[in-house]
Structures are given as C-alpha cells and as structure tokens.
Amino acid sequence: MASKSTEIFLGIDVGSVSVKMVALDTEALEMINFLYVRTHGDPFSSLRMVMKRLAENRPHPVVQAAATTGSGRTLAARLINTEIIKNEITTHTLAGVKIMPEVRTIVEIGGQDSKIIIIRDGMAVDFAMNTVCAAGTGSFLDQQSGRLEIAVEDMGNIALSSDNPATISGRCTVFAETDMVHKQQIGIPTNDIVAGLCRSLVRNYLASVAKGKAITAPVVFQGGVAANKGIVREFQEQTGFEFHVSPYYGVAGAYGAALLASMIKDKQPEFRGFELLDRQHDIKSFACRKCEEACSVLMLYRDGKLISFWNDRCGRYSSGELTFNS
Amino acid sequence: MKVGISRELLAVEWMPELIKRLGQLAPEIEWVHDPAAQIHPQLLLDGDACYPFKKMVRTSLSLLSEVEVLILPRIVSLDGFLMCPNFRALPDIVKINKERTERNRGVPLVSPVMEVSAQNHLEALSREVFKALFKNDARDHEPQLPDNKTEAKGLSGRDITNSIALIGHPYVLTDSRLNNDVPDILRINGFDTVTAQEIAFHQLTELAESRDYYAKKLYWRSARETLGAFLYFNEIQRPAGIIHLVPFNCGVDALLRIELMALHKRLNNATPYMVIICDEHTQRDHVVTRVEAFLDIVHGIKIN
Predict the structure, then answer these.
(1) How would you class A120 by CB atoms within 10 Å of its CB: exposed for 0-12, middle for 13-18, buried for 19 or more?
(2) pTM over 0.90
(3) How far does A209 lie from chain B, in Å, by closest CA?
(4) What is the pLDDT along chain A (326 residues), one digit of tens a residue?
(5) Measured in whole angstroms, how far is the alpha carbon of residue A234 from the centre of its chain?
(6) Is the CB of residue B118 less than 8 Å away from at least one CB of chain A?
(7) Structural domain boundaries in chain A
(8) Which conformational region is residue A128 in: left (phi greater than 0), alpha (psi within -120 to 50 degrees), or beta?
C-alpha cells in the first residue's frame, strides 16, 4: 500500500509468536500500512525488522503518536519511546468496535492467547482469557500442521474439504495430538483429521475460555487463527451465530493500538523507533536485592548509555529514584 | 517461651483473639509468625492440596526450628459454619512431615479442636492451649470472658467509589504470594482496595441468607463470607469494581464462582466483576494484563 500522508499513528503488537504493526493516516484514520512478522523468539530483532520496513516507505513516515500492546508491550514501548502502553484486551476491543460498531462479542485467538470480550454499546463489559492451557491457539495449529506436513495457511481449506471430521479430544493438546496420531495410524484421511482438530479446538474454546460467557450476535472474530476457515465453520456450527472475520484479523491488536494512539491528546514523547536501525541498542538485567521480590530489573542502553529501566515492581528504578549503582 | 503460629492463620477470624487471650494468660509468650528462612522439603501428601494449604504447611514446618512450641489448631467451624476440611487435616499433615525429618522432631505441636462462635468458647480454647503450653504451671487464672471480639468496623461513611473490592478467603486476600499481588497492582494503577474483612461477619452471613435456596444451606463459612461480600458490594456500598480471588477451582470455590457469575448477570447495573484463579497464573504480567483490562472496563474506555 502506498502512503497517502507522511504523518501516521502507529500501533505495535508484540505477541508471543509475531510482531504486528499498523500505520494509520492521521486525518481519516485509514490503514495505510500494516505488517506481520514472526518473532522466532527474538522480539527485539523482529521489532527492528518492522521499523526497517516502515522506514522504507516513501515519503518517510512521521509518527505523531505510537502505542504498544501484546505480551511484549513494555519492551516495545521502551525501544520506540512511547508512554502509550495498553493491554491486548482493550486494543482488540477498540479494533472490533471500529470495524463493527454494533458488535456484541469479540472472539480472538492468537499465537498463544485466546480471548472472549463481551461488548455492550461499544464498550467492553466482561472478558475472559485462556490461562495455563494454550490448547486451541495458533501455536498448537502451527505445531500440528508441521507434524502433518501441511502449511498452516492451508489447514482451513483442507478442513472444509471434509464431510466427516474425525473425533479428536479437545481438552488438552497432549490428548489431541495422541488422538491425531491414532487416527493417522488407523488410516483416517488427513482432511478428516484436520477438520476434527478444528472441531475439537472450537469445543475446547467454548468450554474453557468462553465458559459462563453468553455469546451473542454480532460476533467479530480476530487474531491469526481467524484465517482458518475450518475454525470459522466450526464456530458457526457450534454456536449457531455468524462469525464475521475482521478484515484486519491478523493485525487487530496493532490496529486497536494505533486507534488508541489517535485518541490520546496529550503531547507525546519523541518517537525513536527508527533509531533501532542505526544506533546500538542493548538490554541488560540485574537481580535487585532491595527486597525479597528480587526483581530482574531490565536496562536499555543506547550507544552504550543507560537510558531506561523497567520490570521493577516497586518502580524505584524506572521512576529514577534509584540507579544501577545504588 | 517462643511460640509459633503461622502468618497465614492470623487472617482466620478468631485467631487474633486467641493470641490476644493467650498473651493475657501468659505474658511471657514471644510470638513468632514468620520464619526467618523458609524450608522447602519434599512434602508428603501435598499433591492434591491447594497452594494456600501447602504454604501453611511449609510455614509451619519452617517455624519449627525457631520456636519451642507450635500452635496449630484443628479448625473445624467458626461462627457456626464449617471451615474447609483441609484445616482439619493441617495439624496431621504438619505432624507427618515433621516426623519425617530428623531436625525439629522434638518440637511439640499443640493442636486443639477449634469450634468457636462465642466468647466462652474462645476462653475454653485459650485455657486448653495454656495448659498444653505450661503443663506444670500453678498459675491460677480467674475465670473470665475474654474481651469482646473486635468486630470489623464496617465501611459506612467511607467513600469506596474509587476502590476495588477484593473478595475470597481471608488468607488469600492478605497474602501477596497467594493473591498474585493484585492489591499492589491495583495500587500502582491508582485504586485503593477494600475487603470483606472490613465488614462484620454477621452482616455478611445475613446477606448470604437471601441466597439459601440450595437443597442444603450454604454451610461453608468462607462461602457465606464471599457471597455476602459480593452482595454487599453490589447492593449496599458500591466500589468501582469487584475482583474475586480464587486459589483454584476446588469444591465450594468452583460452585461459588459459577453462582456469582450467574448472579452478576441477573443483577441490574451490577458492579463490574472479575474472577482471578490465582493458581492459573505463573507470571505476574499475566495478572497485570487482566487487572488492567478490568480497570479499562471500570473506566469505560470507548472509541472516539
């Protein structure tokens, strides 16, 4: 997409599996650029790659305000120098309501997280997230597609080609994998196994994540797993509701963050994300011994100079009260 | 005499009164509630227990090397309502694990049955513990009823509109290890906290009576406390939100969690409500995300 404007609102979502970026035109709030990059366990490098791709746009974008979200939001905020840091439940809410103002339920399934958000009058009123179990999330689908030697992007169409989904346990990924191996061993076709997997993952989501929450229409489906048409079909069959896949499903968190950046009226600190490309950035840590919490305090160095602390529960370092030497 | 009672038990109602009365009977008692160092033995029989229970066992075992006697009441019921059965087993589990280690095997445990709902019960319990502590002591105490129990002061007159109410087991609400530091996370985000401990139990149980429609009366004390607090913070004084802290989905906690969620849906204009299952979070950041999202609901963040 070509940039219409040099001034942008930027949203960055650093998740467990991928880094997503969305740039919005500051006048019409139209999405003029987006990016999805796999982290491969290195969010710092992935963020640098995102900045590189953004910087390549012509004319060169000027970031008026930026916001970060996702499990790596604090790290990302330090690296690009923003104070707008928001949890992913709220950013997904903003994204879902923006694309469908009358939405009442947002279902989001990402790399390792899955959520349900109940919306009334454009505001979140309740939510739930998965906790210790990542069954049914994108990383599990990734893992199973690798084992079945099919591309994860093809899983949806493969599932749709089945009229006879195999019975797969959805309670736990370990059981699910055991069932899938068994089905392969007895000769069940791959498309039936994949369709069965989709069915079991949706059953698991409804029984564990959405437990006790009333799904009501309209429903918006966000997160990378929304690309899987087999999962969409199963959601619709098991709930009886139409699931509207967000046009920005893969970058919805970043979209919500960019929308949030556009809403903040206070003057924002200077955006320094592009400095990741040409200046040396290092992160170091130390275990604080000031109290029994023993926080692993993180320090960001730019060109060898200490510029920021975070991850101190008491806030004594990040507020400037204490320094590394003290 | 150095006498130990684990810190977690101090959050249980009537325990502070027991300690106070024992202090009157034997002023020389030096209380120890927090071990200088926690020991981490491989516990016997702890597989099916909740984390609060395991923590109580570990604290008690750790205290053994620092005290002459450990008091570990077998708490059966308080104010006429049953405590979790784990409290009945606590002295046995500590004793079994104590006997397995060479060290501290000789430190005695004093484990009277605790069923207290009135001052005379507390007095009898205090004297029983005193006799166990000072077997040959000739002191002849005048029979007396202990001071009236210090009732919670209540919240009337206090502005709690910018506070988040925390409900659940008292030992969870008061221990940052057990409550995933939720009170501190709320403080960092600009919210005070109020808890059911600030409301008298008789008021909570009266509120809970309105929901005694099960086949049996809701007879667990903590369930009545939690249900009563949920109703109090919805119907009598409204905080900005309510967070229900559940150690894990066990027994009555699982039932109550579902009941409160259903009740919350039926209430008109209910106070925002969220449940955190403490045992399901291994990282503080996971809890921070949920608390921050909940506070966004409280604030009513809406797209422009």
Answers:
(1) exposed
(2) no
(3) 13
(4) 544 558 999 999 998 889 999 999 999 999 999 999 988 888 889 999 999 999 998 888 999 999 999 989 999 999 999 999 999 999 999 999 999 999 999 999 988 889 999 999 999 999 999 876 666 688 888 888 888 899 989 999 999 999 999 988 877 777 778 888 888 889 899 999 999 999 989 998 998 899 888 899 999 999 999 999 999 999 999 999 999 999 999 999 999 999 999 999 888 899 999 999 988 888 889 998 887 778 888 888 888 888 888 888 788 888 877 776 66
(5) 22
(6) no
(7) 7-91+254-278, 99-249, 279-326
(8) beta
Torsion angles phi and psi, residue A298, rounded to 5? -100, 145
Classify residue A301 as left (phi > 0), alpha (psi -120 to 50) or beta. Answer: beta
* Location of structure tokens 């993952």: A201
Look up the CATH architecture of domain A99-249.
Answer: 2-Layer Sandwich (3.30)
Pairing of strands B163-168, B113-116: unpaired
Residue whose token pair is 């009598």: B236
| DSSP-assigned letters across all residues of A86-133 | --HHHHHHHHHHHH-TT--EEEEE-SS-EEEEEEETTEEEEEEE--S-
Please state, in angstroms and as integers, the Cα–Cα distance from residue A99 to each residue in A6, A190, A249, B223, following that order.
24, 35, 11, 43
CA A8, CA A254: separation in Å to the nearest integer?
A: 13
Residues of B in contact with A89 (CB under 8 A): 289-290, 293, 296
Same domain, B187 and B80: no
Report DSSP letters for A180-230, one per residue. Answer: HHHHHHTT--HHHHHHHHHHHHHHHIIIIISTT----SSEEEESGGGG-HH
Place of tokens 């556009």: A262
Q: State the CATH number of the domain containing residue B26.
A: 3.40.50
Instruction: Copy the structure tokens of residue A15.
Output: 């998740």
What is the C-alpha to C-alpha distance for residues A88 and A70, in angstroms, rounded to an integer? 5
Q: Residue holding tokens 């992935």?
A: A46
CB contact under 8 A, B296 and A263: no
Question: Domain span at residue B180?
Answer: 163-299
- Based on its alpha-carbon atoms, the radius of gyration of chain B, rounded to whole angstroms, reads 21
Angstrom distance (rounded) from CA B78 to CA B82: 7
Both tokens of B195, joined, read 């808890």
d(CA A270, CA A66): 10
Residues of A in contact with B274 (CB under 8 A): 126
Domain co-membership, B119 together with B200? no
Strand runs labelled E in B12-73: 30-32, 69-71
Structural domain A7-91+254-278, CATH architecture: 2-Layer Sandwich (3.30)
Tally the domains of chain B.
Answer: 2
CB contact (8 A) between residue B258 and residue A212:
yes
Scan residues 204-263 of B and list those with Cβ closer than 8 Å to A. 258, 261-262
